[in-house]
Design goal:
The complex is a heterodimer. Chain A contains 1 helix and 11 strands. By secondary structure, chain A is mainly beta. In chain A, the strands form 3 sheets. Chain A has a 5-stranded antiparallel beta sheet with strand order 1-2-9-6-7. By secondary structure, chain B is of the alpha/beta class. Chain B has a domain at about 1-115 and about 125-140: Alpha-Beta Barrel (TIM Barrel). In chain B, strands 5-4-3-2-1-9-8-7-6 form a 9-stranded parallel beta sheet. In chain B, helix 4 (about 90-105) packs across helix 5 (about 130-135) and helix 11 packs across helix 12 (about 275-305). The longest helix of chain B is centred in the C-terminal third of the chain and has 29 residues, at about 275-305. Classes of the chains: A mainly beta, B alpha/beta. The interface between A and B is large, with 34 and 37 residues. Chain B: Pfam families: AP_endonuc_2. Chain B: Keywords: Isomerase. Chain B: This is Sugar phosphate isomerase/epimerase. Chain B: InterPro entries: Xyl_isomerase-like_sf, Xyl_isomerase-like_TIM-brl.
Amino acid sequence: MLERSHIQSTGFRNVGPEGARTGFEVRIRQANYRSSRLSLIEGVDITVDGVLYPADGNLFRLGDREYTREELNQATQTRLYVGDHFTVVVPKEGGLTRGVHLIGSAIRYRHPYFPPEFQPAIVRNERHATIIIP
Amino acid sequence: MTGFRYGVSLYSYTDDFGTVMTLDDAFDHVADTGSTGIEILGETSVPLYPEPPAAWLDHWFAQLDRYKLEPTNFACWVDTRIQIDRNMTVEEGAAQIAQDLRLAHKLGFKFIRPKFGVSDRELTPDPIWEGAVERSLDLAHQLDLVILPEIHAPTPIRHPVTDAYVKFIERTGTKNFGLMIDTGIFQDRPLDAWGGGDFESIKKGAPEMVYGTKVPVEHLADVIQYVPFIQAKFHNIDENLHDHQIPWERIVPMFKTLGYAGYLSSEYEGKRDPWVAIEQVRRQHALIRKLEEEFDAAILETANA
């Protein structure tokens, strides 16, 4: 089962070759009470130690497949299920340093049954998480 | 004397489900309240919705049998604003409803509740609802299912949204479409926590949801003939069985007086700390059963006087 916080401890790691990291990634559980068609997710903002990495620059990965924001909008028949998780891949030259970081996530859900002014609904979470290998 | 039927919607266990609770756990919690009905959320509770694995279907029926529970309502969604730049067509809406009718039927349900996208803050449904539902009535009839949009806060009973649904029933003469009442419309005191999302943002953006829609329970008489199922929404019941937002002491006698004998399916929507929902649902069942018994006892007393 998954941790209660949206952001998961496991899955927080640097990406790209050691010594020449291209970024980092964060694992997040489905934070909605029902599955979401990927076309209803308008991206995920990430912050690390106060630095914002806006949704537009990040990739969304479900299983083995990575999606840009436009590709999410096309994925009307692919679902992020409750009890499942996805990964946000954030480009950042050099990656993150070893140690504990304060991570924030803001998932932009479009709920068609909410009045238009509440779309997207932004679901936030913040916690400490640890990079083991720089 | 006819009585309520008691059930639980697995919506109550939001956030527990998938982190600290499995579907098997949920069956155990629901059955132990003395309920006879279980309500699920299709996309949440059914793995690989809309095509669950065969082994899961076998397990679903085995669990219903083991716990002596019957499937009641299957909650589903018509995501009208399916893409950021495009709304569903009537055909797509009808296809979505057909898919949910078929799956609900396969799992043994009697009702589906499609939640349509809305166009304003009074929750006026996307205009495709009418065509999409009308095209689904024959299939619902074949499968012996009733399609129920919900009357949900902040939309009251006396409102054009409800009127349009009633007009549809009268125009088509259908028995396969009705109304579901969400008891959140009777909320008459402010929320102290909200289990439907971020409390601070709803406080700021939709204060009417925090302070309550305060529908007079007498208005139920207008529509009760179209209501075969009720979602018993609540947020906080304390250790004295006092509900802090929903006036059950007025709601229960009104349902009884109007002869309602369908399900009250618990929908807890309060604090989302782990496992809190399990106990909150039990308190609600204790409270409503107590009020129902008091009402029945008073009627008996009058009859014997």
